[in-house]
């Protein structure tokens, strides 16, 4: 794609390099300059510093009008180059570059988390994932083959995107056509016969139009787990008209299909903190861990999903300083799965004296869901002065309709499974809809306005407000005549299995979110800032799990107040080493109120309060033109300040939140042909959620993992790259479920060899 991609410091801007050569200066000198001057009144010298490929410098979302160094928030941008250097192919792995963010939660009881189940600053942030600023729906794994960069905003983001998790938001920026012609392709093979291929082809159609096509295909066998396979393919064509003109139109389509084997995890027997739940099963205390490769599912287990997204974006420059944008998107994610997971609550002992014969119960999770979203968003950005005060304004309106249909399916019972020697060659059948569906629809109208006021050359104020009006309708039916917890008795004369309406309700409300900040430039290279924000989300969060108002037996009652998060941050940002490297240090505190907590009688009330506070350090960019780095460290105290404890150990700490977390990745261009990369990350000990399980671990231990990369440029059209993950083959717990019965082990040492072709 970029003809200069193989130069020592990333991709030089062609004009900058050409000008530098013409005036007889070295590329390094051209790189360091950052201004435009005239010499001898007749020679125009254009000198501009090429941005670091590890630090783009700005957000791609027009709602954030200031450079990252002048944005009074903790924002981490994971650019395309980092994704390529690390051999990353999905969102969850990309987020390993952000300290304290990860898929630490494995689900509740017999249910298992699927897709990008992300926790950040003590909160489930899975409902705050966006693509190009639009909410992305569905609990699926998101591939990065069509992603330009990933932007992680920490702290409440209600002002930016409407209702969202109090911990922040994640925005994936899609690739768009450009006015050049080129092709990038890659073929990868890895451990356990992992195969992947991608194609990125950009074609300039005319002076102002271009076409781009991104393709992806992947098939993997989990190197550390038996029977776990993943297969997906994707296609993303896009067209752009009016490039380099005042009026532009972008048309995008994305289709991704996945056919995976879901992983319900393995028993926690033998982990630190585990003890036998009963005296009769005390032999489990010394029988040792189960093999981390064990698979406790069945041959019938599957996880299939199909994503289709159509986007049209229109942009028009009303003037050199004012641009209006209108985006329309329709998206649908269909997912169905059958997932078998061990429960561990009942231990079978065919031979009480032989642990190898003992069994555990299994729970079958069934899901058949369709999520749809239709949105139209209009945004205007403008720069102007009122007197001596400069303004940088971003304002807009959004209309969104979200629908979700959960199709009721007939329950399936799985046989027990041997604890140490599970057998998966069992057929359970498939999904059979029974008509007991649940349907939700939320209509939202949002209006917002942000402004950055340049009071003086060194002092800025910024603020914004957003109003969202929402209306949610929800109804559900339950097949009557079932057994167990939550079973519904059939009315007189109604046959067993007949769907009976159990909930038919609606909820409307307004959410007012706002933020305010101030920034003072200490020098040309550094500043200090403060920021305060209020963010709210309605009962049920961003889900449709509303229950009948006032019944007192649901955590999602419609008569509950919105959850409110108040966040404050004070920090400093510095551009050093000729502005190649961005440093950020911040202190933060988020207080969350109106949290729903369980009462002693089993009902729910909104008396809970939580607090997450700490500090974060980060460095992104270039230490030298050939040496790139992205690194971060966070210390966070996450606790319940009022209400019932949510951690199993009885402490006030929030579950699935490491107190200490560190991440580092660095890449060095040793010669024109050879590059080396290395990384390390640390995730501290995690407490698990509160549950009635007996004897299961109440925490996981912290761990270090190291990765490495070796790159070799064969010629201008071909380079090879070898990535090695978990270099020291560390055994660790990647996630644990709420009851502590099961966990997901971290991936063992693996490798990935990639051939990249450029034309």
From TrEMBL:
Location within or outside the cell: Cell outer membrane
Domain of life: Bacteria
UniProt GO molecular function: siderophore uptake transmembrane transporter activity; signaling receptor activity
One GO cellular component, as annotated: cell outer membrane
Membrane topology per record: Multi-pass membrane protein
Pfam families referenced in this protein's UniProt entry, alphabetically: Plug (PF07715), TonB_dep_Rec_b-barrel (PF00593)
Gene3D superfamilies cross-referenced by the UniProt entry: TonB-dependent receptor, beta-barrel domain (2.40.170.20), TonB-dependent receptor, plug domain (2.170.130.10)
Sequence motif: TonB box, positions: 43-49
TonB-dependent receptor-like beta-barrel domain location: 243-727
TonB-dependent receptor plug domain residues: 68-168
GO process annotations (BP): siderophore transport
Record key words, sorted: Cell outer membrane, Ion transport, Iron, Iron transport, Membrane, Receptor, Signal, TonB box, Transmembrane, Transmembrane beta strand, Transport
Signal sequence range: 1-32
Family per record: Belongs to the TonB-dependent receptor family.
Identification of the protein by name: Catecholate siderophore receptor Fiu
Species name: Pantoea phytobeneficialis
Lineage: Bacteria, Pseudomonadati, Pseudomonadota, Gammaproteobacteria, Enterobacterales
């Amino acid at each position: 794609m970029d003809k200069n991609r193989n130069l020592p410091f990333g991709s030089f801007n062609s004009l900058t390099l050409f000008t530098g050569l013409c005036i007889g200066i070295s590329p390094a000198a051209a790189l360091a300059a950052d201004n435009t001057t005239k010499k001898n009144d007749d020679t125009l010298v254009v000198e501009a510093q090429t941005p670091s490929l590890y630090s783009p410098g700005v957000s791609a979302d027009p709602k954030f009008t200031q450079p990252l160094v002048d944005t009074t928030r903790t924002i981490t941008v994971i650019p395309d180059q980092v994704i390529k250097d690390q051999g990353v192919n999905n969102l969850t792995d990309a987020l390993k570059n952000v300290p304290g963010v990860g898929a630490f939660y494995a689900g509740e009881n017999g249910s298992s988390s699927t897709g990008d189940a992300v926790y950040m600053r003590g909160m489930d942030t899975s409902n705050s994932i966006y693509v190009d600023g639009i909410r992305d729906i569905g609990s699926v794994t998101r591939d990065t083959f069509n992603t330009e960069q990933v932007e992680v905003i920490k702290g409440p983001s209600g002002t930016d995107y409407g209702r969202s998790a109090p911990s922040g938001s994640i925005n994936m920026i899609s690739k768009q056509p450009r006015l050049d012609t080129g092709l990038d392709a890659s073929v990868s093979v890895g451990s356990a016969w992992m195969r992947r291929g991608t194609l990125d082809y950009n074609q300039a159609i005319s002076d102002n139009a271009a076409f781009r096509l991104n393709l992806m295909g992947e098939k993997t066998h989990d190197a550390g787990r038996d029977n776990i396979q993943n297969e997906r393919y994707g296609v993303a064509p896009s067209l752009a008209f009016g490039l380099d003109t005042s009026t532009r139109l972008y048309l995008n389509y994305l289709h991704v299909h996945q056919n995976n084997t879901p992983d319900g995890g393995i028993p926690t027997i033998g982990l630190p903190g585990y003890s036998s739940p009963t005296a009769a099963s005390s032999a489990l205390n010394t029988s040792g861990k189960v093999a981390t490769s064990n698979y406790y599912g069945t041959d019938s287990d599957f996880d299939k999903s199909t994503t289709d997204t159509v986007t049209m974006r229109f942009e028009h420059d009303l003037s050199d300083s004012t641009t209006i944008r209108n985006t329309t998107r329709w998206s649908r994610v269909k997912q169905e799965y059958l997932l078998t997971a061990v429960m561990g609550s009942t231990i079978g002992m065919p031979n009480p004296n032989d642990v190898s014969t003992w069994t555990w119960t299994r729970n079958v999770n069934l899901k058949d869901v369709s999520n749809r979203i239709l949105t139209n968003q209009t945004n205007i950005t403008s720069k102007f002065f009122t007197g001596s005060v400069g303004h940088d304004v971003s304002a807009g309106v959004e209309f969104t309709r979200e629908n979700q249909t959960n199709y009721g399916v007939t329950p399936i019972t799985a046989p027990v499974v041997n604890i140490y020697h599970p057998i998966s060659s069992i057929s359970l059948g498939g999904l059979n809809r029974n008509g007991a569906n649940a349907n939700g629809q939320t209509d939202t109208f949002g209006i917002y306005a942000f402004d950055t006021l340049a009071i003086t050359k060194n002092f800025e104020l910024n603020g914004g407000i957003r109003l969202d009006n929402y209306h949610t309708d929800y109804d559900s039916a339950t097949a009557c005549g079932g057994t167990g917890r939550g079973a519904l008795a059939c009315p007189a004369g109604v046959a067993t299995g007949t769907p009976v309406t159990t909930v038919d309700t609606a909820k409307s409300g307004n959410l007012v979110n706002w933020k305010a900040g101030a920034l003072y430039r200490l020098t040309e290279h550094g500043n200090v800032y403060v920021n305060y924000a209020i963010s709210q989300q309605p009962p049920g969060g961003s889900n449709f799990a509303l229950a009948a108002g006032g019944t007192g037996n649901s955590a999602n009652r419609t008569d509950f107040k919105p959850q409110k998060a108040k966040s404050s941050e004070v920090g400093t940002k510095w551009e050093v080493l000729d502005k190649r490297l961005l440093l950020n240090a911040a202190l933060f505190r988020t207080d969350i109120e109106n949290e729903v907590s369980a009462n002693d009688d089993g009902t729910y009330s909104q008396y809970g309060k939580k607090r997450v506070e700490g500090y974060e350090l980060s460095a992104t960019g270039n230490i030298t033109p050939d040496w790139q780095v992205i690194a971060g460290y966070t210390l966070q105290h996450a606790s319940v300040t009022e209400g019932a404890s949510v951690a199993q150990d009885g402490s006030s700490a929030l579950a699935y939140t490491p107190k200490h977390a560190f991440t580092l990745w660095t890449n060095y261009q040793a010669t024109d042909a050879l590059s080396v990369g290395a990384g390390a990350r640390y995730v501290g000990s995690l407490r698990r959620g509160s549950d009635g399980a007996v004897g299961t671990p109440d925490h996981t231990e912290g761990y270090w993992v190291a990765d490495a990369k070796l790159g070799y440029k064969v010629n201008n059209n071909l380079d090879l790259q070898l990535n090695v993950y978990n270099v020291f083959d560390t055994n660790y717990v990647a996630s644990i479920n709420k009851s502590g019965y099961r966990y997901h082990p971290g991936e063992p040492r693996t490798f990935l060899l990639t051939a990249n072709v450029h034309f």
